[in-house]
Amino acid sequence: MDWDYFFPTPDAGGPDGGHPELFGWPVAEDEHHTEVVWLERAEKFNAAGIELPTVHGWKGFWDRFSFTDGAPLIYADSNAWAGQLWPSDVGGDGAWESVHLYDAHHDAGYKQNHLSFEHWKTSGDGIRCENWMLAHHWAGAQLHVHFPPWRESMDHPREDPLVDVAMTIDDGRPPPTTFNLAYVCRSGAWVPPWADQTFTDFLRSAPLPKSAHPQNQWIHPRPDPLRMAEMKAALRAKAEDLAAG
After folding, report:
1. DSSP of the chain, one letter per residue?
2. pTM, two decimal places
3. Inter-residue contact 17 to 10 (CB < 8 Å)
4. DSSP string covering 86-155, please?
5. CA–CA gap between residue 136 and residue 28 (Å, rounded)
6. What is the reported pLDDT for 237?
7. Pair 149, 172: CB distance under 8 Å
8. Which of 21, 64, 126, 177 has its Cβ near the most Cβ atoms within 10 Å?
């Protein structure tokens, strides 16, 4: 599951809140977009007098799921690592029968990057956050994407994955599946640092043994952009006072 499932944004089909111009953020899984850029974004919300957007609806999320005994929860910042998790990680073999994704995005490949599944297979681009489900499709798994209930319709944005995916807006009902493994990504390029403590609380609420993906590298919690904005404003005021004096 992707933490941005709980972070409503207009570009992902949520209500615009009257200020869609404050969203529409470019994203990339690099240090600038996961850490640095959030100060500028927080300042724009503050300048507009708009309350900072944050996550909603995460409490009780785990209550509807069934897990096998000992099923682990693995977490990291990027959803790309989910493409490298297989039954062998929990003592099994082969491929998953099904993969269920709770996310604001389908992660099954986008045609602005690859024309088709075959194109992706031969491109050498590998597994990334936007296409990791293709690895499981290739191995024979049935793919299911559950979009968040704040999404207003399935028509916007248009969803056109590279492979067959069962897609629906989540109705809150338990899926008819017992899961052997859960994976959660923080999606630091999509979800702001001021939600990091809540992300920790969300992980703690899961009734599963937890561990970070062994290849994950991140800072958690990230530097607080609200505190940085306050310090920046204080320094600017001090400089103005010195200049006036």
Report:
1. -BGGGGS--GGGT---TT-GGG------SSHIIIIIHHHHHHHHHHHTT-PPP---S-TTGGGG-EE-TT--EEEES-GGGGGG--GGGGT--S--SEEEEESSS--S--TTT-SSHHHHHHH-----TTTTHHHHHHTTPEEEEEE-TT---SSSS----SS--EEEE--SPPPS-EES-EEEE--TTTS-GGGHHHHHHHHHHSSS-EEE-TT----SSPP-HHHHHHHHHHHHHHHHHHHH-
2. 0.93
3. yes
4. -GGGGT--S--SEEEEESSS--S--TTT-SSHHHHHHH-----TTTTHHHHHHTTPEEEEEE-TT---SS
5. 23
6. 67
7. yes
8. 177
Query: By C-alpha distance, which of 80, 103, 90 is closest to 181?
Result: 90
Q: How many CB atoms lie within 10 A of CB 98?
A: 15
- The pair of structure tokens assigned to 40 is 């500028």
- Tell me phi and psi for residue 182, to 5 degrees: -120, 140
pLDDT value at residue 151? 97
- CB-count exposure of residue 18 (10 Å: 0-12, 13-18, 19+): exposed
Residue that is written with structure tokens 């269920």 in the block: 100
> Distance between CA 172 and CA 80 in Å, rounded?
25
Q: Average pLDDT by consecutive 10-residue portion of the chain (245 residues)?
A: 97 91 92 94 92 96 98 98 98 98 98 96 96 98 98 95 98 96 98 97 98 95 84 69 69
Six token digits for residue 42 = 């927080």
